[in-house]
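To whoever picks this up:

The parser on our side crashed when reading a file containing two proteins. I've narrowed it down to the boundary between the first structure block and the second sequence. Both blocks are reproduced below exactly, byte for byte. First block:
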Amino acid sequence: MTKLIGVIMAAGWGKRMKSKTPKVLHTLMGKPLIEFPLGTLKQLNIDSIFVILGSLTEPLKERLGERCTYIIQDPPLGTGDALKKILPYLKNNQETDVLVVPGDAPFINTRLLEEFGYSHQNSGCQASILTTIMENPYGYGRIIRDENSSLVRIIEESDLTSSQRNIQEVNASVYIFQASALLKYLPQLENQNQQGEYYLTDIFEKMKLDNLGIFVFCQEKNPEMLMGINSRKDLVKANRLLKEKIIEGFLESGVTIIDPESTYIEENVSIEQDVIIYPFSFLMGNTVIKSDAIIGPGALIKNSVIGNGCKIYYSEIEEATLEQGVKVGPFSHLRSGTYVKRGAKIGNYAELKNSVIGENTKVSHVSYLGDSTVGEGVNIGAGTIVCNYDGEKKHPTVIEDEVFVGSNSTLIAPLRIGKGAYIAGGSVINIDVPPEALALGRERQVIKEGWVKKRKERRKNRG
């Protein structure tokens, strides 16, 4: 088997995106575009992967980490100039094949690349091109063939004549070269075109002058598989295609999605069978939804684990874990570090952060718990808040099993409330409460008989 090197072309800024962000960092269903080709190449038997970057390198390096070798092209002088940057790595590997893929083509899969690779090897050619047929080929380089259907050249969109614009066979910007061909012909490229750039596609004309065969592999079925993302409009189309694919997969695996059009589910989400998802729900990141859960309507869940039989509606959950049978909502917010145990209920307008909620505990009605550990069978009354931040540091609160916290209570951390204690409604508690004790932290009520009548008389006399 010939040694194979992968190259991802990611140096282009993407002018048609009209953005301060490099094109390959724009997200498709929650994942940057560059992640798609990198993930595909990782699944192939590739000896090394190079990613060619442009001027803004740090965000891409931060995202991709050590999964590839970085090559910098700055200033950007075209695709031919970009690929020239790998020539030093090829001098001792001239029998190696180099697979080149664009960084903005999210739907290219391993099966297609494997088929392309086998066809290239069987062709005996030093270079191969992957093409497809598109009804609307705008933005793509066109494949020019002769009367024998052999490749003549590839012409970029900006250099097309009016008649050439009707050609529907397009260049998918996926190639395989023998390293020796790149070493010989890349230095011969010129920039005599409207853009003043070195086009990689011009290499094929150089090779044909030496009577070298160029193999063209046309993938006519599913041209969307080879679509590139060049504009926000393309990104919308790609989002729709990937969303449909993801949702179809879940429907086939036994998930009920009431209204797919109004439901958003990202690629890394895992959903078990017999889950029901209602409209206007957003499932994002590395979220796991276990069987028999009911999600929505109006749920937003990101990087969280939702246990069997949970019910979540009109609420936001991020970086949290819910055990079996937990109910959340409406209008609650579970923030990072929250862990809710079996059978607990998080009701109307409650907010939790970095807290553990025990089994069968109830937190309802405009309550806030932060940096708190709450035991089993606890009742957190309406309007209860934990004051965990003193302006400099955050402090913990521990509420043991079977505690009753009355409505409108303020718990000032650091604080421990013992098992079975009772906090009277309206209390401000800043001292530890022993088990089974009653704690009251409020002023004695004062009543002044006849005060309103006397006040009215005073105002009348002043008038």
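<<boundary where parser fails>>
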Amino acid sequence: MTQELTPNLLIVGGTILNPQTGSATPADICIENGTITEIGAKLDRKGKAIYDATDKFISIGWMDMHVHFREPGYEHKETIVTGSRAAAFGGFTAVACMPNTNPPIHTRDVVEFIIERAEKTPVDVYPIACVSKNRAGESLAEMADLAAGGAVAFSDDGSPVQNSGLMRHALEYSSMLNIPIINHEEDLSLGTKGHMHEGEVSTRLGLPGISGLSEEIMIARDILLAEYTGGHVHVAHISTAKGVDQVREAKKRGINITTEVCPHHFAITDALVESSGYHTNTKMHPPLRPQSDIDGIKRGLADGTIDAICTDHAPHASFEKEVEYIAAPFGILGLETAWGLTGRELVSEGVLSVSEAVYKLSIAPREILHLAVPEIKVGQKANLTVFDATTEWVFSANDIKSKSTNTPFVGSKMVGKAWAIYNKGFFVNNG
């Protein structure tokens, strides 16, 4: 993996994929001073730095709308620089980072600090600010000021907004700002002491469970509140088939609701907790669910109910994860394996076409967050991901670019690889 400021570059031999139309057009792309100056067949190579993209697709740069970069406050887990490195390896030119930092992203200065820290990385980092002060669920944060500073959404992240009155007011205020509320959908009274999915496996292992019901009840509440206020609810990391069904029906009724899913929730089941010997890298929130939920998630991806694919990239230091299962924090890395798992579980299996998968990884997140969508067009700043959907490879420890190493996918087969990104004048080559 190499990262260099490369204002001038000629990408040759690739196929430009437009995920909006599904078109795939072989063409070279000439970049000068970070801007696309020419697109066409067999462009003049004389005196130019060349990247050979033969047998590869080129799309607009991908965006992960749900990551944890931990800075400020938890730099021992991840920083904006190391998180951006992991994002670039995964094919992402943009991310939106969650506010469970210390201090939380509940004041404008923290929003601006994150944006400033990301300026010299090849990845655009968009802060998601808190719904409530200190993520405590008691009083609203200064939403208008946070949005003016650059916040693109509001969420209390892993501290779901339990107070329905507060959630109502948050939706009312955010609708005036045209910004979504992202909620971790969980009724804590139904699972606050759980450590994995409540079901057959948890019963056999004797571990307290987190019921899918806790997610579905909160989704139902937020659907009603979105309908009442007209506000935009975005369901974070949906993980149950019934939850997908609820979102599908709400969309049919014209309610302003969107949702996302993480690759681990369509790639592995709660059975891995047992077969791995209680490995804490199988502990995430929402928890891994059974196959019936994976089947429902894949139906929701195929029919468009699930809008976006994200990672919930959640780094933790080794000393935090290498403890008893019940003492370990929730969360795993996700940026480095997102496309390989999407290719393996969705594209190879015919759940999504390559174009549909890329749409959920590039255009949909930006549309949900009301961000400008890049274009591969002469005169536009180059914001590109180079990838394929067929390369079979095994994810290894050497492929981890995060500061932490907590992933269950070391040694796992991947299908499809992100080979390079270009953004902000930076070229990152993963080849």
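After patching the parser it read the second block fine. Residues 6 and 12 are 16 Å apart (CA to CA). The chain has two domains: 2-57+378-402+413-429, 61-368.
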